[in-house]
């Protein structure tokens, strides 16, 4: 009986591994895009503000302070 469940367990493991890898690469792509494009961050602030909040918190943890305030000021001034 263990013989028949082993291939199923391997298949499930491979599927979980693929999903995990897709998640890691997706998170890297998203972070990289936000880290290199202020316009993309502005779009994210309108559509997905909770994701942008995670981005700001992560760069503040790395020691880059003031980015959020500078961008909010710039976006406010561009509206006027």
From TrEMBL:
Keywords on record: Membrane, Transmembrane, Transmembrane helix
Transmembrane segments: 12-31
UniProt-listed InterPro entries: CEBPZOS
Domain of life: Eukaryota
Record-given protein name: Protein CEBPZOS-like
Taxonomic source organism: Leptonychotes weddellii (Weddell seal)
């Amino acid at each position: 009986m263990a013989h028949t469940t082993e291939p199923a367990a391997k298949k499930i493991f491979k599927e979980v591994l693929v999903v995990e890898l897709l998640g890691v690469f997706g998170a890297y792509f998203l972070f990289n895009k936000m880290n290199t494009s202020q316009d993309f961050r502005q779009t994210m602030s309108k559509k997905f503000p909770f994701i942008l909040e995670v981005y700001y918190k992560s760069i503040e943890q790395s020691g880059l302070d003031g980015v959020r305030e500078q961008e909010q000021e710039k976006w406010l001034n561009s509206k006027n």
